[in-house]
Amino acid sequence: MSLQQKLEDVVRDVSGTFGVSVKHLQTGEAASMNEDQLFQLASTFKIPILAALYRDVEAGRLSLEQRVKINEEDQVPGSGVLQELHMGMEVTVKDLAMLMIIVSDNLATDQLLKLVGTERVAAYMRELGLEQTHIHHSCWDLLSLSVGMVPQAYSRETLEQILAWEFDPDSIVFQADPRNNAATPADMARLVEMIATKQVISESACGGMLDILFRQQFNSRLPYMLPDKAKVAHKTGTLGGVVNDVGIVYMPDNKGAFSIAVLSKDNPTMEEGERTIGRLSRAAYDHFMNS
Fold this sequence. Notes:
By secondary structure, the chain is α+β, with helices and mostly antiparallel strands. It has a single domain (3-289), classed as DD-peptidase/beta-lactamase superfamily (Beta-lactamase). The protein contains ten helices and ten strands. The longest helix has 20 residues, at 270-289. The protein starts with a helix and ends with a helix.
């Protein structure tokens, strides 16, 4: 059975809609489903931010060691740990990047976006040839829009409205729209492939990004059904019925590595989306290990 057939078998009876792009980095064998369809990125949009950050560090525009003070008005709800800590602390840019990826820290993400610039992240994706990767909103903006609010500066009242978590299903946040943070599985898989094969910025920058992606703490998707010998550098994303994971799976026994981007929508539960991603990853892994 071909890899394509194996992937199609996994999603045949699931409730959600999935876009998948898989490629063995050494042999070039690939398979995909809906890989050119736009999907809401959720927190996988933090990989493009990471790449743009390391580009700026390489250019000398930013330093990983420079310190950023975290204040009350920097609060962003949702995933992360910085919001739980003492305001007024100072953390390094490297700390922010680490937290953005490994625990999907929204406050850290928005601090990095202030340093790098949202428009500059989007422009860098164009420079890399990723024409279907659209980055427009910070985490604060996404969360505001998701509950039907026009994004505005931080206030305690606004924060409390967001924390009520009364989602507006008609919000653009929940649409796969180029005005949203959206991309195709093909673009996202290509981005992590370029990082894994050291085709962007510099070898050391790619090594730094991979080191962070390997430290991911949320491992109930791409790595979940894989044996311990497999190592995965990846970033997850979740927003309502959107359940995503994008990364590189490194296989044992000199079998190489493969890029895999799984973006989805309309999952009835997060757990169902996670199981499907885990099964897709395992199907690709078993196929390449037995090739």
